[in-house]
Specification:
296 residues, mainly alpha, SalK, HTH_67
Length: 296
């Protein structure tokens, strides 16, 4: 697998270049969360509840951890939902088994939504090399989910190596993002409510079905945010709310800048270009539910 020869000195990195690159990589990573291939592979291990599947596949890299660790690392899930499945899920299948099942599911998913030609393409190998190079500059300190996944071996096949690198970059940014949310004084549900209010977060129905919260708790979070002047009476962000979300993303960019500086401006641009083509194909193939994002 070849790697880019670009360097940080190619040209100045645009302040939002890393965020744009992360967006396409994270989208590609996330295809498997909605994939029937994951459901099938996990069912063969005896794990069938959607929440148990979700917690297991994402937490397995950390080992057979308890509910407290998962709640802390995932941030915006209701602890009671986590505790209903963790650590019991590890009695059904061990973390190593889950990691293997996840990778098989990712393989099947990417072949299905991208097509065999894209999976075997030179562009896929190029994207894998670029993403892995960016991940070289990720740091472990205070980043538990990134660090756990960084301990896993890089798969040999380029499309799986690309997904693995996308996962590393996703969890690296995500861990930093949680630090920023804590500093902003937003709890897990408040973070979801404000993100959804931007129009870019997941719709409330998906929050309720996947994160364990209910309408009453959502309404209470909105009331707390109104008390801080961040939401208006219609549930829309106020000027202060918009500014807070803008600052949260900017601070997250700052904490996540190293991988993209390491890759260099030209490399980031090329990785974003390649990733945009891949995620475009996945979207065309229906990789995500049509009603996933938005306020409805």
């Amino acid at each position: 697998m070849t790697s880019s020869t670009t360097s940080p000195s190619d040209s100045a990195l645009h302040p939002r270049a890393g965020r744009r690159c992360h967006s396409v990589l994270n989208s590609l990573h996330s295809t498997h969360y909605f994939s029937p291939d994951v459901t099938r592979e996990m069912a063969q291990l005896g794990i069938t509840h959607p929440s148990a599947v979700n917690f297991a596949v994402r937490a397995a890299a950390m080992g057979p951890v308890g509910a407290g660790v998962v709640t802390a690392a995932f941030y915006n899930y209701k602890h009671e939902l986590v505790a209903a499945h963790v650590p019991e899920v590890w009695n059904t299948a061990g973390p190593g088994e889950v990691i293997g099942a996840r990778l098989r599911a990712v393989d099947a998913t990417l072949r299905r939504v991208l097509g065999e030609e894209a999976v075997a393409s030179a562009e896929m190998a190029e994207a894998a090399g670029l993403a892995l190079r960016a991940a070289e500059a990720c740091t472990r300190t205070a980043r538990p989910l990134y660090s756990a996944h960084a301990d896993l071996p890089v798969p040999d096949e380029p499309h799986l190596a690309y997904w693995h690198a996308a996962t590393l970059l996703r969890e690296h940014r995500g861990d930093g993002h949680l630090t920023v949310l804590l500093d902003a004084g937003l709890d897990g549900l408040e973070a979801l409510v404000t993100h959804t209010a931007t129009g870019k977060g997941i719709a409330p129905k998906w929050v309720f079905s996947t994160r364990g919260w209910n309408q009453q708790e959502w309404d209470a979070a909105e009331e707390r945010l109104r008390g801080r002047g961040l939401l208006d009476g219609e549930g829309e962000l106020t000027e202060d709310g918009v500014a807070l979300r803008r600052d949260i993303e900017a601070d997250t960019d700052r904490l996540d800048r190293a991988p993209y500086e390491h890759l260099g401006a030209a490399g980031v641009e090329r990785l974003t270009e390649l990733g945009t083509v891949f995620i475009g194909a996945a979207l065309q193939a229906g990789a995500f539910p049509a009603d996933l994002l938005g306020k409805g």
